[in-house]
Amino acid sequence: xxxxGFYELCPRxxxxxxxxxxxxAEYVSVPFAALNRTVFKLADDITCEEGALIEPFGVGYLxxxxxxPRQSDVVAVFGAGIIGLSCIVALKARGVSNIxxxxxxxLRLRTAGNLGANVxxxxxxxxxxxxxSEATSGRGLDLALECTGVRKPFFTALKTLRYxxxxxQVGVFTEAFEFNPVTVTDKWLTITGFVxxxxxxxAAAVNGHIIDFKKLVTHIFPLDRINEAFxxxxxxxxSIKVVVKP
Length: 246
What we know:
By secondary structure, this protein is of the alpha/beta class. It is built from 9 helices and 8 strands. The protein is globular and about 50 Å long.
Protein backbone atom coordinates (compact mmCIF):
# COMPACT_ATOMS: atom_id res chain seq x y z
CA UNK A 1 0.00 0.00 0.00
CA UNK A 2 2.91 2.36 0.71
CA UNK A 3 4.42 1.81 -2.75
CA UNK A 4 1.02 2.31 -4.36
CA GLY A 5 0.69 5.74 -2.74
CA PHE A 6 -1.99 4.84 -0.17
CA TYR A 7 0.02 6.25 2.71
CA GLU A 8 -2.85 6.18 5.21
CA LEU A 9 -2.90 2.37 4.83
CA CYS A 10 0.83 1.80 5.27
CA PRO A 11 1.12 -0.91 7.96
CA ARG A 12 4.41 0.50 9.30
CA UNK A 13 3.46 4.16 9.28
CA UNK A 14 0.64 4.39 11.81
CA UNK A 15 -1.83 7.21 12.18
CA UNK A 16 -1.39 10.34 14.27
CA UNK A 17 -3.75 10.38 17.22
CA UNK A 18 -4.52 6.67 16.84
CA UNK A 19 -1.32 4.66 16.59
CA UNK A 20 1.00 7.44 17.79
CA UNK A 21 0.45 10.45 20.03
CA UNK A 22 -1.71 13.17 18.54
CA UNK A 23 -1.30 16.93 18.38
CA UNK A 24 -2.89 18.14 21.61
CA ALA A 25 0.51 19.34 22.72
CA GLU A 26 2.92 22.20 22.08
CA TYR A 27 5.13 19.94 19.97
CA VAL A 28 4.39 16.67 18.21
CA SER A 29 6.70 14.02 16.77
CA VAL A 30 5.97 12.88 13.20
CA PRO A 31 8.30 9.91 12.66
CA PHE A 32 7.06 9.32 9.11
CA ALA A 33 7.33 12.99 8.05
CA ALA A 34 7.67 13.61 4.32
CA LEU A 35 7.36 17.15 2.96
CA ASN A 36 4.22 17.69 0.85
CA ARG A 37 3.00 14.19 1.66
CA THR A 38 2.48 13.99 5.41
CA VAL A 39 3.63 17.48 6.48
CA PHE A 40 2.98 20.74 4.65
CA LYS A 41 4.47 24.21 4.87
CA LEU A 42 1.99 27.00 5.51
CA ALA A 43 2.25 30.16 3.45
CA ASP A 44 3.50 33.17 5.39
CA ASP A 45 0.04 34.78 5.47
CA ILE A 46 -1.77 31.63 6.68
CA THR A 47 -2.48 31.30 10.40
CA CYS A 48 -2.14 28.10 12.38
CA GLU A 49 -5.91 28.16 12.87
CA GLU A 50 -6.40 28.06 9.10
CA GLY A 51 -3.70 25.41 8.81
CA ALA A 52 -5.68 23.20 11.18
CA LEU A 53 -8.30 22.90 8.43
CA ILE A 54 -5.95 21.10 6.03
CA GLU A 55 -6.85 17.74 7.57
CA PRO A 56 -10.67 17.97 7.35
CA PHE A 57 -10.54 19.62 3.95
CA GLY A 58 -8.26 16.82 2.77
CA VAL A 59 -11.04 14.38 3.65
CA GLY A 60 -13.52 16.42 1.62
CA TYR A 61 -11.25 16.54 -1.39
CA LEU A 62 -10.74 12.77 -1.34
CA UNK A 63 -14.49 12.21 -0.88
CA UNK A 64 -15.14 14.28 -4.01
CA UNK A 65 -12.51 12.28 -5.88
CA UNK A 66 -14.18 9.03 -4.83
CA UNK A 67 -17.53 10.40 -6.00
CA UNK A 68 -15.97 11.50 -9.32
CA PRO A 69 -18.98 13.63 -10.23
CA ARG A 70 -19.95 15.03 -13.59
CA GLN A 71 -20.61 18.75 -13.54
CA SER A 72 -24.27 18.08 -14.38
CA ASP A 73 -24.80 15.66 -11.47
CA VAL A 74 -27.21 16.36 -8.63
CA VAL A 75 -25.25 15.65 -5.46
CA ALA A 76 -26.49 15.56 -1.87
CA VAL A 77 -24.26 16.01 1.16
CA PHE A 78 -25.77 14.57 4.34
CA GLY A 79 -24.32 16.44 7.30
CA ALA A 80 -22.72 19.89 7.15
CA GLY A 81 -20.11 19.70 9.87
CA ILE A 82 -16.58 20.63 8.89
CA ILE A 83 -16.25 17.42 6.82
CA GLY A 84 -19.52 17.95 4.97
CA LEU A 85 -18.63 21.60 4.32
CA SER A 86 -15.26 20.43 3.03
CA CYS A 87 -17.08 18.15 0.60
CA ILE A 88 -19.09 21.11 -0.68
CA VAL A 89 -15.91 23.12 -1.34
CA ALA A 90 -14.34 20.16 -3.15
CA LEU A 91 -17.46 19.51 -5.23
CA LYS A 92 -17.61 23.17 -6.24
CA ALA A 93 -13.94 22.99 -7.23
CA ARG A 94 -14.90 20.17 -9.61
CA GLY A 95 -17.57 22.29 -11.24
CA VAL A 96 -20.64 20.76 -9.56
CA SER A 97 -23.34 23.40 -9.26
CA ASN A 98 -26.40 21.43 -8.06
CA ILE A 99 -25.64 20.55 -4.44
CA UNK A 100 -28.30 19.60 -1.89
CA UNK A 101 -27.43 19.66 1.82
CA UNK A 102 -29.33 17.99 4.65
CA UNK A 103 -28.36 19.11 8.16
CA UNK A 104 -29.96 19.66 11.57
CA UNK A 105 -28.05 22.83 12.54
CA UNK A 106 -29.30 26.14 11.15
CA LEU A 107 -25.83 27.65 11.59
CA ARG A 108 -24.22 24.93 9.50
CA LEU A 109 -26.99 25.06 6.88
CA ARG A 110 -26.42 28.80 6.43
CA THR A 111 -22.71 28.15 6.08
CA ALA A 112 -23.38 25.45 3.47
CA GLY A 113 -25.43 27.96 1.49
CA ASN A 114 -22.64 30.52 1.72
CA LEU A 115 -20.25 27.93 0.28
CA GLY A 116 -22.46 27.30 -2.72
CA ALA A 117 -25.07 24.66 -1.84
CA ASN A 118 -28.27 25.61 -3.65
CA VAL A 119 -30.86 23.43 -1.82
CA UNK A 120 -30.80 23.51 1.99
CA UNK A 121 -32.88 21.00 3.98
CA UNK A 122 -33.33 21.21 7.73
CA UNK A 123 -33.46 17.53 8.68
CA UNK A 124 -35.31 18.24 11.94
CA UNK A 125 -38.08 20.27 10.32
CA UNK A 126 -38.43 18.93 6.77
CA UNK A 127 -39.14 15.57 5.14
CA UNK A 128 -35.70 15.04 3.61
CA UNK A 129 -36.79 12.37 1.12
CA UNK A 130 -39.70 14.47 -0.11
CA UNK A 131 -37.57 17.59 -0.48
CA UNK A 132 -34.95 15.69 -2.47
CA SER A 133 -37.65 14.20 -4.70
CA GLU A 134 -39.03 17.68 -5.34
CA ALA A 135 -35.57 19.12 -6.03
CA THR A 136 -34.81 16.36 -8.56
CA SER A 137 -38.29 16.26 -10.18
CA GLY A 138 -38.70 12.73 -8.82
CA ARG A 139 -35.60 11.37 -10.55
CA GLY A 140 -33.41 11.03 -7.48
CA LEU A 141 -29.80 11.83 -6.71
CA ASP A 142 -26.87 10.99 -8.93
CA LEU A 143 -24.50 10.98 -5.95
CA ALA A 144 -24.77 11.09 -2.18
CA LEU A 145 -21.98 11.86 0.28
CA GLU A 146 -22.99 10.62 3.73
CA CYS A 147 -20.97 12.60 6.28
CA THR A 148 -22.82 11.96 9.56
CA GLY A 149 -22.05 8.35 10.41
CA VAL A 150 -25.67 8.07 11.59
CA ARG A 151 -28.11 5.33 10.59
CA LYS A 152 -31.07 7.44 9.42
CA PRO A 153 -29.20 9.64 6.89
CA PHE A 154 -27.49 6.53 5.52
CA PHE A 155 -30.84 4.93 4.69
CA THR A 156 -32.24 8.22 3.40
CA ALA A 157 -29.28 8.46 1.03
CA LEU A 158 -29.96 4.96 -0.31
CA LYS A 159 -33.65 5.73 -0.70
CA THR A 160 -33.15 8.98 -2.59
CA LEU A 161 -30.45 7.81 -5.01
CA ARG A 162 -31.59 7.22 -8.58
CA TYR A 163 -31.16 3.85 -10.25
CA UNK A 164 -27.42 3.42 -10.86
CA UNK A 165 -26.58 6.09 -8.28
CA UNK A 166 -23.54 6.14 -6.02
CA UNK A 167 -23.09 6.59 -2.27
CA UNK A 168 -19.75 7.70 -0.83
CA GLN A 169 -19.66 6.79 2.86
CA VAL A 170 -17.58 9.53 4.50
CA GLY A 171 -18.88 9.53 8.08
CA VAL A 172 -17.61 6.93 10.55
CA PHE A 173 -20.29 4.86 12.29
CA THR A 174 -19.84 4.21 16.00
CA GLU A 175 -22.73 1.73 16.28
CA ALA A 176 -23.61 -1.30 14.18
CA PHE A 177 -27.09 -1.70 12.68
CA GLU A 178 -28.96 -4.14 10.46
CA PHE A 179 -28.74 -3.47 6.75
CA ASN A 180 -30.47 -5.42 4.00
CA PRO A 181 -28.46 -4.88 0.80
CA VAL A 182 -31.41 -5.73 -1.45
CA THR A 183 -31.83 -1.99 -2.11
CA VAL A 184 -28.29 -1.91 -3.49
CA THR A 185 -28.93 -4.80 -5.87
CA ASP A 186 -32.43 -3.72 -6.93
CA LYS A 187 -31.33 -0.16 -7.72
CA TRP A 188 -27.86 -1.06 -9.11
CA LEU A 189 -26.24 1.20 -6.52
CA THR A 190 -22.55 1.61 -5.79
CA ILE A 191 -21.31 2.16 -2.22
CA THR A 192 -17.70 3.16 -1.67
CA GLY A 193 -15.61 4.30 1.27
CA PHE A 194 -12.08 5.45 2.00
CA VAL A 195 -9.70 6.46 4.76
CA UNK A 196 -7.50 9.55 4.97
CA UNK A 197 -7.60 12.49 2.61
CA UNK A 198 -6.06 14.34 -0.32
CA UNK A 199 -3.87 16.56 1.83
CA UNK A 200 -1.71 18.02 -0.97
CA UNK A 201 -4.86 19.36 -2.67
CA UNK A 202 -6.19 20.64 0.64
CA ALA A 203 -2.92 22.36 1.58
CA ALA A 204 -2.88 24.07 -1.82
CA ALA A 205 -6.47 25.26 -1.28
CA VAL A 206 -5.71 26.66 2.18
CA ASN A 207 -2.44 28.30 1.11
CA GLY A 208 -4.14 29.66 -2.01
CA HIS A 209 -7.02 31.34 -0.11
CA ILE A 210 -9.62 29.39 -2.12
CA ILE A 211 -12.20 30.46 0.50
CA ASP A 212 -12.05 32.45 3.72
CA PHE A 213 -11.18 29.53 5.98
CA LYS A 214 -11.06 31.77 9.06
CA LYS A 215 -14.86 32.05 8.97
CA LEU A 216 -15.18 28.31 9.51
CA VAL A 217 -13.20 28.46 12.78
CA THR A 218 -15.90 29.52 15.22
CA HIS A 219 -13.99 28.93 18.48
CA ILE A 220 -10.37 28.81 19.66
CA PHE A 221 -9.47 27.34 23.06
CA PRO A 222 -6.15 27.05 24.89
CA LEU A 223 -4.91 23.58 25.79
CA ASP A 224 -5.93 23.88 29.45
CA ARG A 225 -9.59 24.32 28.35
CA ILE A 226 -9.64 21.31 26.03
CA ASN A 227 -12.62 19.67 27.74
CA GLU A 228 -14.65 22.83 27.16
CA ALA A 229 -13.54 22.81 23.53
CA PHE A 230 -14.89 19.29 23.04
CA UNK A 231 -18.17 20.25 24.71
CA UNK A 232 -18.64 23.23 22.38
CA UNK A 233 -17.75 21.15 19.32
CA UNK A 234 -20.52 18.72 20.31
CA UNK A 235 -23.11 21.53 20.05
CA UNK A 236 -23.73 21.94 16.30
CA UNK A 237 -26.01 24.97 16.66
CA UNK A 238 -23.10 26.90 18.19
CA SER A 239 -20.00 25.70 16.40
CA ILE A 240 -18.53 24.64 13.10
CA LYS A 241 -14.81 24.08 13.69
CA VAL A 242 -13.31 24.34 17.17
CA VAL A 243 -9.54 24.69 17.36
CA VAL A 244 -7.35 23.85 20.36
CA LYS A 245 -4.28 26.07 20.34
CA PRO A 246 -1.48 24.81 22.64
